[in-house]
């Protein structure tokens, strides 16, 4: 593999990945991936199904460790700390690195209780007024404050899919995460819902480091500042999205973007 240019300098870097490899049993899903993810920006992971992009995303909060046959080698530094160090708390890591999944997964509680749930676990002594202010702020940040009525009376599972996905993002915000991971967050939404979530991502990009997995090339071009093309567990190319989509350096990137495979 050729040396890949890195568009993100170390001083402006939120995530540093160095020689990261991962195996599911005997199958190697990631092959010595090295990557820098820019702070306060959106980075899209693109590539055909099975290329390793979701596996890489789940390395950033060690979600892959739910599987007993996973083995990882290499370093992932988030906010200057190797998250694979033995003394790293998974609870604190997943507080700092929140994740949104393909299908919205709100709890069968009120909208208010969904957002307050994490706060009550991590800050049990938080007063009722401070909690209410945090919930209101989160709803405002995801553009839900005016559209759902009384959050204490509105059941989260009664919301439209697009609103549910926004709520799942809102649940993370009171914990003050550094990084937001999004695994195909619009895959279950219609065009109108996708547009609403993309507008939200644009609003959040300056305050959070966001890494998004998407199969939708048009979406990657619309929402991301940088893109990473992966193939067969390797990082093939990483560049500013405008550059990568117009003048890719690797033939395989060009072929994928042009739809010749994947």
Describe it for me?
- By secondary structure, this protein is an alpha/beta fold.
- It has a domain at 10-106 and 176-257: Rossmann fold.
- It is 33% helix and 26% strand.
- The strands form 2 sheets. Strands 6-7-8-3-9-10 form a 6-stranded mixed beta sheet, sandwiched between helices. It has a 4-stranded antiparallel beta sheet with strand order 2-1-4-5, with helices on one face.
- α3 packs across α4 (128-141), α3 (111-122) packs parallel to α5 (161-172) and α5 (161-172) runs parallel beside α6 (191-204).
- It is globular.
- The protein starts with 12 loop residues before the first strand and ends in a 5-residue tail after the last helix.
Write the layout of secondary structure elements.
Elements: E1 13-24, E2 27-38, E3 42-46, H1 53-59, E4 70-78, E5 81-82, H2 90-96, E6 97-100, H3 111-122, H4 128-141, H5 161-172, E7 179-183, H6 191-204, E8 209-213, H7 217-223, E9 226-231, E10 234-240, H8 241-246, H9 251-257
Summarize this structure as a short list of keywords or feature phrases.
262 residues, alpha/beta, Rossmann fold, 9 helices, globular, disordered N terminus
Give a nutshell description of this structure.
This protein has 262 residues and is of the alpha/beta class.
Quaternary organisation of the protein chains: single chain
Q: Tell me the CATH topology of the domain at 10-106 and 176-257.
A: Rossmann fold
Name given to the CATH architecture of the domain at 10-106 and 176-257? 3-Layer(aba) Sandwich
Q: Helical segment tally? A: 9
Q: In sequence order, what are the helices and strands, one letter per element?
A: EEEHEEHEHHHEHEHEEHH
Give the CATH class of the domain at 10-106 and 176-257.
Alpha Beta
Largest sheet: spatial strand order:
6-7-8-3-9-10
Strand content: 25-35%
Radius of gyration: 19 Å
**Overall body shape:** globular
| CATH level-four homologous superfamily name of the domain at 10-106 and 176-257 | P-loop containing nucleotide triphosphate hydrolases
* Distance from first to last alpha carbon: 20 Å
Low-pLDDT segments, ≥5 res: 1-6
* Approximate helicity band: 25-40%
- Averaging pLDDT over every residue, what do you get? 92
Helix vs. strand class? alpha/beta
Biggest sheet, open or closed, and with what strands and sense? 6 strands, mixed
What is the number of beta strands? 10
């Amino acid at each position: 593999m050729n040396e890949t240019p890195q568009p993100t300098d170390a001083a402006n870097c939120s995530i540093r990945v160095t020689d990261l490899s991962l195996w599911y049993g005997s199958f190697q899903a990631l092959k010595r991936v090295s990557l820098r993810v820019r702070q306060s920006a959106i980075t899209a992971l693109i590539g055909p199904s099975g290329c390793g992009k979701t596996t890489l995303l789940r390395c950033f909060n060690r979600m892959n460790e739910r599987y007993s046959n996973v083995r990882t080698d290499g370093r992932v530094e988030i906010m200057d700390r190797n998250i694979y160090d033995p003394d790293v708390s998974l609870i604190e890591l997943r507080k700092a690195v929140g994740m949104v999944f393909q299908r919205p997964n709100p709890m069968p509680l009120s909208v208010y209780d969904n957002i307050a749930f994490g706060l009550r676990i991590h800050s049990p002594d938080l007063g009722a007024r401070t909690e209410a202010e945090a919930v209101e702020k989160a709803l405002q940040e995801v553009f839900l404050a005016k559209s759902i009525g009384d959050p204490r009376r509105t059941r989260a599972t009664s919301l439209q899919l697009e609103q549910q996905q926004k709520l799942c993002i809102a649940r993370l915000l009171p914990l003050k995460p550094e990084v937001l991971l999004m695994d195909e967050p619009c895959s279950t939404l219609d065009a109108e819902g996708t547009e609403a979530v993309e507008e939200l991502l644009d609003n959040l990009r300056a305050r959070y480091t966001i890494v998004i997995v998407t199969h939708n090339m048009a979406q990657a071009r619309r929402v991301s500042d940088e893109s990473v093309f992966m193939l067969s567990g390797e990082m093939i190319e990483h560049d500013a999205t405008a550059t990568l989509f117009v003048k890719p350096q690797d033939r395989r990137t060009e072929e994928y973007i042009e739809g010749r495979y994947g």
